[in-house]
Amino acid sequence: MKIGIVGLPNVGKSTLFNSITKAGAECANYPFCTIEPNIGVVAVPDERVEKLAEIYKPQKITHAVVEFVDIAGLVKGASKGEGLGNKFLSHIREVDSIIQVVRCFENSNIVHVEGNINPIRDIETINLELIFADLETIDKRLEKTKKLLKADQKYQFEIDTLEKVKKILEEGKCARVLSYTEEEKEVLKESFLLTLKPILYVANISEEEIETAEENENVQKVRAYAQKEGANVIPLCVKIEEELSCLEKKDKQEMLEALGLKESGLDKLIKASYHLLGLISFLTAGEPEVRAWTIRRGTKAPVAAGKIHSDIERGFIKAEIIAFTDFIKAGGSMTQAKEKGLVRSEGKDYIMQDGDIALFRFNV
User: Fold this and answer.
1) What is the pLDDT of residues 310-335, one digit of tens each?
2) What whole-number distance in Å separates Cα of residue 5 and Cα of residue 97?
3) Rounded-to-integer distance, Cα 148 and Cα 299, Å
4) For residue 156, how many other CB atoms are within 10 A of its CB?
5) Could you report the per-residue pLDDT of 136-151, keeping only the tens digit for each?
6) What is the dihedral of CA 12, 13, 15, 21, to 10 degrees?
7) How far, in Å, CA of 86 to CA of 111, rounded?
8) Taking the CA atoms of the chain, what radius of gyration do you get in angstroms?
9) Rounded to an integer, what distance in angstroms lies between the CA atom of residue 225 and that of residue 124?
10) HSE-CB for 300 with a 13 A CA cutoff
11) CA 120, CA 135: separation in Å to the nearest integer?
12) Rounded to whole angstroms, how far apart are CA atoms 289 and 285?
C-alpha cells in the first residue's frame, strides 16, 4: 500500500518525505528500506506493540509498515505534460492515497513559486490538474462505453455513473466529494481516477506557530477546504520534524517536552496515513515475536489468519481474541484474562477489530 506525497515547489514536500523515512526507521527499529530514491518503507508507531514487548520480552519486534512515495513536483499544465507533468501523473496513479503538503508559513528567504502565500490557490492548482486528467480519462471511457450500449443496454448503468462523476469534475470539484454505491464503486474502480483517491492535507507551519497552529489563518482555510471533502488536516512544522527525526530517542523526547508536545507531528502523520488507507492492525504476542499485522478494515478472522500463513486460513477452526485494552486491564496476563472471561472464541464470520490480540486455532 503506497501513499504519495505531493505539493508545489518549496512547500516542504521532499523535506517531509526525508523526515518521515528517518523517523519511521528510528522509532520502530525497522530497517529503512530504499526501494528507489523516492520510495521509503517506514514503521507505523504503535504504543501497543511497545507495551506487549515490555511484557513478553520477545526475541523480535515487528511493526506494521507504510510505503511513502515522494512524487515529482507539479506545475500548472501538468495534465498537458508541462514540466514533469507526465511523470507526476504516472506516479500518482500508482499510489493508493495522497498526502498534499500545503505551505502555510511566511518566509522571505524561501521563494514561493506563485510569489505569495495562498494555500487554497496552491491546493486547487494541484487538484485542478488531477481533475483535468480525470476528465480526459472519463471522456475516453464514455466514448467507448456508449458504443457498447448499442449492442447491450446493461452498459447504461456504467454510463450513468461516469456522467455523474463527469458533472462534478466539470464543476471543478474532486470525485471524492461524492458518495457512491458499491455498484458505482465497482464501475469506477477500473478508471483509476486520481481525484477519487483518499487525501490527507499537511499544513506546513513555522516554528513559532507550533503551539498556536489552530489559530493560524492559513491552517483554518485549509481545514475548511478539507472538510468539504471529508478529509483530515495535520498542521506540523516540517523544519522541526526534520530536526527531531535526526535525534536519538532520549534527545527527541526532551525536545518534544521543550516544545510542549506529547508526540511528534510525524508520528501523528504516519498513524493517520495508515488509517487513511483503510488499514488496521491485529496483534500476536509471545516470546519469539511481538508483531502487528496489517489488514483492511472489515477483514474476517480466517483472512486475517492467512496473513500469518495460508495454511492457517485454509485449516481455520476458530480465533481466540482479546482486545488489547482488556489484556492490559487483566494485568498483561493471558491466564488472568481467561479467568475473567475476557478472551473470546470467535468463528469464521468474526470481523477483526483494531488492536485485537489473536491466537488462531487450525488443522490441516
Assistant:
1) 999 999 999 999 999 999 999 999 99
2) 9
3) 36
4) 12
5) 999 999 999 999 888 8
6) 150
7) 25
8) 23
9) 10
10) 9
11) 21
12) 6
